[in-house]
């Protein structure tokens, strides 16, 4: 330890001599959140904000699921008049937009916000006020687009908003503008969380947690954060260009005035394909955590798994053109993207084999979290195989814009992300709530979800090969798609009902579930070294890590570090590679200004839909909020 960290004053030395309930109570007072509405709105506790993120993301999932059910009811029979074309377009757009921008990415970051500080052995996330700001911006963006939908001015341009159809000529009104600004909301939020995760992992790991001792879930969200930082500015630029074309008359995407409509697709898919892995990589970390715990052995091929995560992150930036094979690109260029699209199957295959080897060499305990991981194996591998088909230019040309593609990406995203996510909820719910989810209901949930999903989405491969195009709201009986669409709709309803069962389990278990205890699964990582749910300070004393699975290596007593104040919000800043304790850093106190800054940001974004002058005046308001946020208060905390 450096001198800056190891030399507390005499009062702090007296503080370090206390322990037990007295230490816990004093630290809880120092790190706690004030009671009342103001305290709740001002909190910077990563656990509280993480819980809010998770709950909000699942609420958006429920809304997106309702939109999907409505669409499947419309498509269940030919020439159905249940839903008109305009409402169908809005439902189609709201479903895809909500799932991709308001659920899939935010929920993965939400688990990272809650778990990463616990798993690396620190007391709060880096930049906790920025963390609070990111949540409020995310909520405002989601509310904006759903309130617009309720007012019948919902976005209707698809979650991809291709130009020129989303441009001013073909989409009059404010629907596309609302969609474009929602993108800005959610990406600001996601970028903020990504920065927090990167800094937390690099600089706030517990002493001794060297790079080869970082949990695989932490590795997965760490790499994902870099993908967010490099990929999401592309879609922010694209949405800004779109709204400039629509609101102030630029012609960035207008070929008649020297613009380029294909530029939209390049910008969007340069973000859009890494986004698949932004969603998928945290899910692989969840799978690694669950398999390690329930196989009762250390993960086979730790280094191979980490390198596979890194390789997947790099390769994900070289695939975007396989979404554009039918746009008239040079054949030589398309062949390179075919090769890279197939190449990314290699690191994904390595991960699958490492997980199977871990289970094979262990003593698996088939609880609900592991069942969802096994379901992930089946569904994701099937989706990956259809992905290899779509990577081939001739085959992709044949099935482009058909329901075969719909089936593929649902197999990849639901199989590759939602099933591991549900397993993660069953796995970490005891840590967050302090009670176990009901195992019997959990198994019912799994089988309903597994059967319902495959019955719902596998027939779409066949209807796609039969020529059923995407994005249609009805079809003629003569096409021969009716029975398969009815089967898909029935399966989708069963899949949706499985989430009703899941919701019942979550709500009822919070009140009457079995008390979990600190470590109900006998897991080996640090989040299980504290109580369930954790106290405001996470750890009374910062643990010292001596093993990749510290709780398995130190069965009797986990070694701890000393030197932090009890009366101030201090945490350890460590070196990047070896995680040696370097300095003591003060974590910011709760503040209402992140909320006020988010409100100012939200008002600016929403008002700019109606007048570009809102950017000028709104920037001044945002500037005032940020100045107040960072203004030195003369207190001990670090205001930065």
Characterization of this structure:
This protein is mostly helical. The protein contains 21 helices and two strands. The protein has a two-stranded antiparallel sheet with strand order 1-2. Strand 1 and strand 2 form a beta hairpin.
Q: Which descriptors apply to this entry?
A:
640 residues; mainly alpha; 21 helices
Give the uncertain stretches in residue-range form. 1-10, 12-17
For the biggest β-sheet, the strand order reads: 1-2
Give the overall average pLDDT: 91
Give the overall silhouette. Answer: globular
Largest sheet features: 2 strands, antiparallel
Task: List SSEs in N-to-C order.
Answer: HHHHHHHHHHHHHHHHHHHEEHH
How many E strands?
2
Quaternary structure: single chain
- How much of the sequence is in beta strands? under 5%
Q: Which structural category fits the helices and strands?
A: mainly alpha
Helix-residue proportion: 55-70%
Query: Whole-Å distance between the termini?
Result: 25 Å
* Alpha carbon gyration radius: 25 Å
Number of helices: 21
A few lines on this structure:
This protein has helices at 3-6, 10-16, 20-31, 37-42, 46-75, 85-120, 128-150, 175-203, 216-247, 261-295, 302-315, 331-343, 345-361, 368-390, 393-399, 403-433, 439-465, 482-512, 550-553, 593-607, 613-630; strands spanning 570-574, 581-586. With 640 residues, the protein is mainly α.
SSE blueprint:
Layout: H1 3-6, H2 10-16, H3 20-31, H4 37-42, H5 46-75, H6 85-120, H7 128-150, H8 175-203, H9 216-247, H10 261-295, H11 302-315, H12 331-343, H13 345-361, H14 368-390, H15 393-399, H16 403-433, H17 439-465, H18 482-512, H19 550-553, E1 570-574, E2 581-586, H20 593-607, H21 613-630
Antiparallel strand pairs: 1-2
Helix pairs in contact: 5-6, 5-7, 5-18, 6-7, 6-8, 6-10, 7-8, 7-20, 8-9, 9-10, 9-11, 10-13, 10-16, 11-13, 14-16, 14-17, 16-17, 17-18, 20-21
